[in-house]
Amino acid sequence: MSYGVSIKDVEQYVAVSESGDEIQCVVTTPRVWISIPSDYNTVYRKYLDEKDGIFWLHHKRGQDCVVKLEEVLAILGTIRTHVYWQGSRGNAGHTLAVILRWALLYPLAVFEVTEHKTEEVSTWPPPGLHLV
Predict the structure, then answer these.
(1) Cβ atoms within 10 Å, residue 123
(2) Residues of the chain with pLDDT > 70: what percent?
């Protein structure tokens, strides 16, 4: 199992149908996407959010996450092990550093976190996303 984290621009507007009804519309445009090994979530539950782990990001704007991500990153560091899927502080921190850069680059965009079974990962990312 793994987790997918993306950050998307969100636009909301009201459209008027031919019959004159107002329709609330939400359009999301994905910016970037990354896959995170499930072992990292043990680290994220310890340092980011005890209950939600990496899902703490879900539906939050980039600008609302920066301070907490910086604080956690200062604890975790970014020195990776040679086994990238290992749930070490440095591996999890390295990925969190990427996510922090996204939050800084796209402060008004919204994070989306999804869970994937191993066999589903091959279908990700959807076409048009930039991989990191």
Answers:
(1) 8
(2) 84
CA dihedral of residues 70, 101, 125, 93 (deg, nearest 10):
-40
How many alpha carbons lie under 13 Å from residue 99 in its C-beta half-sphere?
35
18-34 per-position pLDDT tens digit: 787 777 776 667 778 89
**Two tokens, residue 104:** 């800084």
- Whether pTM > 0.85 for this model: the answer is no
Alpha carbon of 31 to those of 17, 22, 82, 83, 129: distances in Å? 29, 29, 28, 28, 6
Neighbouring CB atoms inside 10 A of 19's CB total 5
- Asked if residues 72 and 46 have their Cβ atoms less than 8 Å apart, the reply is no
- Mean pLDDT of all residues in 106-130: 70
Classified as helix, coil or strand, 15 is strand
128: left (phi over 0), alpha (psi -120 to 50) or beta: left
Residue of 82, 59, 50, 85 lying closest to 72 (CA atoms): 50
The sign of the torsion formed by the CA atoms of 102, 39, 81, 68 equals positive
